[in-house]
């Protein structure tokens, strides 16, 4: 049921995500990196003392 | 706990569970989905009419390759207008007061228009950096100015939406707290502040809708230049 819902969703939005919105994903990636750097300062784990 | 005027803008959480996700999912929950019926009910017909009119209005000046962005810009408009207007209700959280969210929309979408323009028509996209009819001595200065204005665009887009909504919410809080204090002390002055608060609320409803429209309109203009 869940897989069917995902397939139906992808059938509707897949043509958009794979072609016209590729340029948007560049900006999404850049923003993800910027937010990660701001939120965590580039560190994955907090140093344990 | 000492509260300041800016506490209303804190991202809400309940026992360390962030509730901002519920606020962001509200527009999806509020609007009915399309059905396969030939004639829908009144609400769905009104929604379809509004979306059709809006999309037609926005995409009239854009060339046909840009029409692929219709779904993105129409859904963005509906999302922003719902978040902005729902945030005017008491005790609600407005996600669009957060600069992080607005920049998260502005930068990727602006960058997408620039990348699209540079990939499909690089000469024309670079030609936008120099307006037609520029006197020759001014060309170097104007190219620098146009480049700066190009890079200012996403910042302006994000900050415009944030600042308008934040300022509106702050004003409402200030005037309503002044009213509640004055009601017991100087009722005559309180009637003036109540009237002011009513007019301000009307203004904020208009600003909420206009700012969402302006955000999407500017993105469509940037798309129009590059497609």
From TrEMBL, chain A:
Keywords: Membrane, Transmembrane, Transmembrane helix. It comes from the Eukaryota. InterPro entries: ATP5MJ (IPR012574). The chain crosses the membrane at residues 20-38. One of its GO terms (cellular component) is mitochondrion. The keyword Ligase does not apply. This is ATP synthase membrane subunit 6.8PL. It comes from Xiphophorus couchianus (Monterrey platyfish). The lineage of its organism: Eukaryota, Metazoa, Chordata, Craniata, Vertebrata.
UniProtKB/TrEMBL annotation, chain B:
Its main location: mitochondrion. One of its GO terms (cellular component) is mitochondrial inner membrane. The chain crosses the membrane at residues 13-31, 69-89, 101-118, 138-159, 171-199, 205-223. It is a multi-pass membrane protein. The keyword Ion transport applies. Keywords: ATP synthesis, CF(0), Hydrogen ion transport, Ion transport, Membrane, Mitochondrion, Mitochondrion inner membrane, Transmembrane, Transmembrane helix, Transport. CDD domains: ATP-synt_Fo_a_6. It comes from the Eukaryota. It catalyses: H(+)(in) = H(+)(out). It is found in: Mitochondrion inner membrane. One of its GO terms (molecular function) is proton-transporting ATP synthase activity, rotational mechanism. It holds the Pfam family ATP-synt_A. NCBIfam families: ATP_synt_6_or_A. Component of the ATP synthase complex composed at least of ATP5F1A/subunit alpha, ATP5F1B/subunit beta, ATP5MC1/subunit c (homooctomer), MT-ATP6/subunit a, MT-ATP8/subunit 8, ATP5ME/subunit e, ATP5MF/subunit f, ATP5MG/subunit g, ATP5MK/subunit k, ATP5MJ/subunit j, ATP5F1C/subunit gamma, ATP5F1D/subunit delta, ATP5F1E/subunit epsilon, ATP5PF/subunit F6, ATP5PB/subunit b, ATP5PD/subunit d, ATP5PO/subunit OSCP. Belongs to the ATPase A chain family. This is ATP synthase subunit a. It comes from Xiphophorus couchianus (Monterrey platyfish).
């Amino acid at each position: 049921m869940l897989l069917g819902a995902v397939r139906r969703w992808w059938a509707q939005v897949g043509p958009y995500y794979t072609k016209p919105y590729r340029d948007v994903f560049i900006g999404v990636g850049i923003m993800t990196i910027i937010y990660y750097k701001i939120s965590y300062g580039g560190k994955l784990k907090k140093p344990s003392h | 706990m000492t509260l300041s005027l800016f506490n209303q803008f804190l991202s809400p959480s309940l026992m360390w569970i962030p509730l901002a996700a519920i606020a962001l999912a509200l527009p999806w929950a509020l609007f009915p989905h399309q059905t396969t019926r030939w004639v829908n009910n009144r609400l769905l017909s009104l929604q379809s009419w509004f979306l059709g009119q809006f999309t037609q209005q926005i995409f009239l000046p854009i060339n046909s390759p840009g029409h692929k962005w219709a779904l993105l810009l129409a859904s963005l408009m509906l999302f922003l207008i719902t978040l902005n207007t729902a945030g005017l209700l008491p005790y609600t959280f407005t996600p669009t007061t957060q600069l992080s969210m607005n920049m998260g929309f502005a930068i990727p979408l602006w960058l997408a228009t620039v990348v699209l323009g540079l990939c499909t028509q690089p000469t024309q996209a670079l030609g936008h950096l120099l307006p037609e009819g520029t006197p020759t001595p001014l060309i170097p200065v104007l190219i620098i100015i146009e480049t700066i204005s190009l890079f200012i665009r996403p910042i302006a887009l994000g900050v415009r939406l944030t600042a308008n909504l934040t300022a509106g919410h702050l004003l409402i809080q200030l005037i309503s707290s002044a009213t509640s204090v004055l009601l017991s002390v100087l009722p005559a002055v309180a009637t003036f502040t109540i009237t002011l608060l009513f007019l301000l609320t009307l203004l904020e409803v208009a600003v909420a809708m206009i700012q969402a429209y302006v955000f999407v309109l500017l993105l469509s203009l940037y798309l129009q230049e590059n497609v």
